[in-house]
């Protein structure tokens, strides 16, 4: 069983584009049992979903008008429903041989700053929320795509952002710290009562992208009992930062190994970013997941370790967070 921390299949479904990475007809053969399916409101054309060579410095996108964000998020919710997948509100709903979806909101632009609609989204099945993407909103500020660079790029959470973290804790919604700048990360870490989660981020010590987590951030996630979903986006894996498909899948193993050694095997998982990123040609999509598992075994991870990486760590955090 493989549970994945992040994919953008909903975006491609909404755009009526052919999927690049998540072909659900191949799920059973790949042992793919679903995971976090993101609703994400695009602004300007994507930056890191196409090949790019380092160094690069892509500024934050402009803040989105809330009315536009609400409209698109609701359209994507309908696209999410059209996939016909079971929507998880309990970790027990993940079973072998079936794809189950966690409804995830990547960037909180569609939410009312007073949070009057958060319960409505919860009733729709929302169980995971990323405060930001690569732009500002009324809650927090994301990191720009920059290599090399530090994630310490701007101010922390706003008052509305603090209230959003607290409200997610009250409802039992996962607060995703991926894309959040470092000050915002520490603000959220000081507020939340749940395990810290970064659904699709890597180790900054191995790849000095703003999108990756410093050792101190990794340590905090481990201490909290949380999880880092290792992102398969090659630009966040490679030491040179180049965002090119001609990258060995062992780069994924390198980050998994580093995080497991630093904070423990209980705190690392997969967070592929399928259908929203450039991934290794050796992976290609969900059909490449068994090859990654084999590479982990070749690197010395035993059967119990691999079970934790592929699904048990995610299930544990969901059980500890969801109501």
Description:
The longest helix has 19 residues, at 303-321. 34% of the residues lie in helices and 14% in strands. It has a single domain, classed as Metal-dependent hydrolases (TIM Barrel). It has 323 residues and is an alpha/beta fold. The model has no long low-confidence stretch (mean pLDDT 97). The strands form 3 sheets. Strands 1-2-4-5-7 form a 5-stranded parallel sheet. A 3-stranded parallel sheet has the order 8-9-10. The radius of gyration is 18 Å and the shape is globular.
Report on the biggest sheet. Answer: 5 strands, parallel
Distance between the termini: 23 Å
Within the largest sheet, what's the order of strands? 1-2-4-5-7
**How many domains in all?**
1
> Which regions have little confidence, pLDDT < 50, spanning 5+ residues?
none
Structure keywords:
10 strands; 323 residues; TIM Barrel; three-stranded parallel beta sheet; Dipep_AS; alpha/beta; 10 helices; 34% helix; five-stranded parallel beta sheet; Pept_M19
TL;DR?
The longest helix is centred in the last third of the chain and has 19 residues, at about 305-320. Helix 4 links the parallel strand 4 and strand 5 (about 125-130).
Indicate the topology.
Layout: E1 2-7, H1 9-14, H2 27-30, E2 32-39, E3 56-58, H3 66-82, E4 100-106, H4 118-124, E5 126-130, E6 145-147, H5 159-171, E7 174-176, H6 182-191, E8 197-198, H7 215-224, E9 227-230, H8 250-263, E10 268-270, H9 289-298, H10 303-321
GO molecular function, one term: metallodipeptidase activity
Pfam family, one: Peptidase_M19
């Amino acid at each position: 069983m493989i549970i994945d921390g992040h994919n953008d299949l909903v975006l491609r479904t909404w755009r009526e584009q052919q999927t690049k990475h998540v072909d659900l007809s191949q799920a059973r053969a790949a042992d793919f049992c679903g995971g976090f399916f993101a609703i994400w409101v695009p602004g300007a054309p994507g930056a890191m979903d196409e090949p790019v060579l380092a160094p690069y410095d892509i500024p934050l996108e402009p803040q989105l008008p809330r009315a536009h964000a609400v409209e698109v998020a609701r359209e994507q919710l309908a696209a999410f429903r059209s996939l016909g997948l079971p929507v998880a509100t309990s970790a027990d709903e993940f079973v072998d041989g079936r794809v189950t979806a966690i409804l995830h909101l990547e960037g909180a632009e569609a939410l009312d700053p007073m949070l009057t609609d958060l319960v409505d989204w919860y009733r729709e099945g929302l169980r995971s929320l990323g405060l930001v993407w690569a732009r500002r909103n009324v809650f927090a500020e994301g990191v720009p795509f920059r290599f090399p660079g530090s994630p310490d790029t701007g101010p922390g959470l706003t008052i509305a952002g603090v209230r959003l973290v607290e409200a997610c804790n009250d409802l039992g919604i996962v607060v995703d710290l991926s894309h959040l700048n470092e000050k915002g990360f520490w603000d959220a870490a000081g507020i939340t009562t749940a395990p810290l989660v970064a659904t699709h981020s890597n180790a900054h010590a191995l790849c000095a992208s703003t999108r990756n987590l410093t050792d101190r951030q990794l340590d905090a996630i481990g201490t909290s009992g949380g999880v880092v979903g290792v992102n398969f986006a090659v630009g966040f894996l490679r030491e040179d930062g180049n965002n090119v498909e001609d990258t060995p899948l062992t780069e994924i193993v390198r980050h998994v190994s580093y995080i497991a050694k630093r904070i423990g095997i209980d705190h690392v998982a997969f967070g592929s970013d399928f259908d929203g990123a450039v991934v290794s040609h050796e992976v290609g999509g969900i059909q490449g997941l068994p090859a990654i598992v084999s590479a982990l075994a070749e690197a010395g991870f035993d059967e119990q370790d691999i079970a934790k990486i592929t699904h048990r760590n995610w299930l544990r955090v969901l059980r500890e967070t969801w109501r």
